[in-house]
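Quick one:
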Amino acid sequence: MSRPRDGVLLVDKPVGPTSHDIVRGARARLGLRRVGHAGTLDPFASGLLLLCLGPSTRISQYLSALDKSYLATARLGVSTSTHDLDGDVVDDSPRWRELDDGTVRDAIEALQGPVLQVPPRYSAKKVRGTAAHRRSRQGEMVELEPVPVEVHEVGEIDCAFPLVTFEVRCSSGTYVRALARDLGMALGTGAHLTALRRTRVGAMSVRDAVPAGELGEEVPRSAHLSAARALAHLPAVRVGEEDAARLACGQAVEPTLEPVPDADPVVALERGAVVAIGVGRGGVLRPRKVFR
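Output:
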């Protein structure tokens, strides 16, 4: 058991609170001013929320870009304004009664691959500097441009009509609510999301997370990752003490311990701890962010 002051905390968010509610509670319970999250979950959704603590708030951008995995349940036959159960019903169709398991499975599997997805009107996407959901709630007809996303994999599918539950692994920025909407359109029945649970972010699993209600002085070791472990998906280079000191001053280095990969970003590690994140080119590491 440990009391986290830095690194990344894996939290199992319940249905109800916003992601910021969880952040605010973590600040109070852990006695930390600097706490942020790496990827929002809607209030009706549950599951894995990554909290970045202290200096590690500066690595959130490298975590929010990771693939996400979800367990989702869609209700066929009913479309809502938000594409989830919190919205107003805008259409109701009995055509789901004509569907069979095979047709629905084929339609869900057809969602796989790269696609231009239109984000929900009720989302945090910015329109002329203001979140789309704010403009929509003010009565403005918001039209969002499609964005490239990818559904990497569809897992187990369970049909209990009119409900359909499916597992999905997708790129960052994919709205599973929009997948439910698009599924309903493909089937000609309409649909909305009734439940959503994030099960993984990259290699990090909700199975290792601490329930949000149990955040306090101490958390299980499995739920607390160092910055180095959380960034293990990125190319890395080991540096010695002298190179680490130069990086800490913002200076480019040509590490003596091992060659720098040509990549952006590259994590510089001294004795297993993150000292900088930068760009590797031609054997030289130029720091963008320093942590010492």
